[in-house]
Amino acid sequence: MSAKALIVIDVQNDFCPGGALAVTGGDEVVPVINALEQDFEHVVLTQDWHPQHHSSFASSHPGKQAFETVTMPYGEQTLWPDHCIQGSGGAAFHPHLSRTKCELIIRKGFRPAIDSYSAFFENDHTTPTGLSGYLGERGIKEITLAGLATDYCVAYSALDAARLGFKTTVRLDACRAIDLGGSLETMLGRMKEAGVRLV
Questions:
Q1: For 154, which DSSP code?
Q2: Where are the beta strands (DSSP E) in 10-109?
Q3: Catalytic member of 16, 27, 82, 108
Q4: Do the Cβ atoms of 187 and 160 come closer than 8 Å?
Q5: Catalytic residue at 10?
Q6: Residue 147 DSSP SS3
Q7: Sheet order of strands, 102-108 included
Q8: CA 108, CA 50: separation in Å to the nearest integer?
Q9: Catalytic one among 10, 48, 115, 151?
Q10: Beta strand pairing call for 167-176 and 42-48
Q11: d(CA 70, CA 66)
């Protein structure tokens, strides 16, 4: 039987109520994830980790507002409020999130010119984070995803995991969504089509 890992996506202060890019009910996932961790031998956390003036910030594009889109060399990019700036309190993990079993923290979005939703690849879909290699070397073939936000970083991580051949589950009770213009329904559909198990 293959080893299993829990991948906890971006449970950081800026994505929780009161944060710069707060997801409604974002802090509600913390106790669910803490309980879920007990069922896994391997736990990995991801952390959004942007430099100041990151290209995905609306503030870096004069005349643009948060949640508008622009075209980047790698495709369409949603512009966000400044969030999860390296070393800031907003980039820190939620204080009640258990990190005892965490074996690895994958930081993403630290390259100024490209955003990174997925735990596996930057938004060009070719620059790897190293997570796939880590899981492969550990013999882990089955992963469960939880965290923030369902329709962005969780969903893109799940799609990449399925594409890379991992048996992939998303625990919807341990996720919360941003839901920009129907993005939740769209991404739930894309995950189902890709063979991701939604529970």
A1: I
A2: 42-48, 69-72, 75-78, 102-108
A3: 108
A4: no
A5: yes
A6: strand
A7: 102-108, 42-48, 3-9, 140-148, 167-176, 197-198
A8: 8
A9: 10
A10: unpaired
A11: 11
- The letter for the amino acid at 17 is P
Which of these, 145, 155, 147, 148, lies nearest to 183 by C-alpha position? 155
d(CA 97, CA 72): 34
**53 CB-near residues (< 8 Å, 6+ apart):** 59, 60, 112
Q: What's the predicted TM-score (pTM) here?
A: 0.96
- For the stretch 128-182, pLDDT in tens is 999 999 999 999 999 999 999 999 999 999 999 999 999 999 999 999 999 999 9
Instruction: Report the amino acid identity of residue 173.
Output: D
Known catalytic membership, residue 153: yes
Question: Is 124 labeled as catalytic in the residue annotation?
Answer: no
Catalytic residue among 151, 153, 160, 175: 153
Structure-derived torsion over alpha carbons of residues 11, 198, 125, 165, reported in degrees to the nearest 10: 120
